[in-house]
Amino acid sequence: MLQFIKPRVLLALGFGAIVAVAVSGFAAANTVPASKAGDGAGAITGYVATAIDYTLNAADPRNIDQVVFDLDSNPVATSQIRIKLVSTGSTWYSCTWVVGPPVRATCATTAPAATAVSANELRVVIAD
Question: How far is CA 41 from CA 37, 45, 76, 78, in A?
Fold first, then answer.
């Protein structure tokens, strides 16, 4: 016995096929650029500062003109070195350094002038 499909069912199937083709055409047209993502961990190691030398101002020895110290290894070429001499203060002094060995860092502490009476720590921060 043969059964015939009603025209209404054929029309619905045809419309569904057209919608499916159109939707897949839009989905196929999307492009996403390549990207990178990742996760990792690395150890943060510190430096060892030695041969620390405070240079007092010749005219007023209450002031510290500079701090010089050696590091146990060379920082990355783009590294920044800053020091702080007062634990509760907000003044950070910039340093320059020379590739070694020894790696010698020199930090001018004159603007504003660091004073020997207020200096209670030597905090060194090195970041690349």
Answer: 14, 13, 19, 21
> What is the four-CA torsion angle of 62, 65, 69, 73, rounded to 10 degrees?
150
| Alpha-carbon torsion angle 8, 11, 17, 22, nearest 10 | -130
Convert the pLDDT of each residue in 46-63 to its tens digit: 999 999 999 999 999 999
Q: What is the pLDDT of residue 30?
A: 73
DSSP 27-70: HHT-------------------EEEEEEEEPSS-TTEEEEEEEE
Question: How many C-beta neighbours within 10 Å does residue 119 have?
Answer: 17
- Entry pTM: 0.68
Sign, CA torsion 61/64/66/71: positive
Number of continuous H segments (helices) and E segments (strands) in the chain: 1, 7
Residue 76 · residue 46 · CB < 8 Å: no
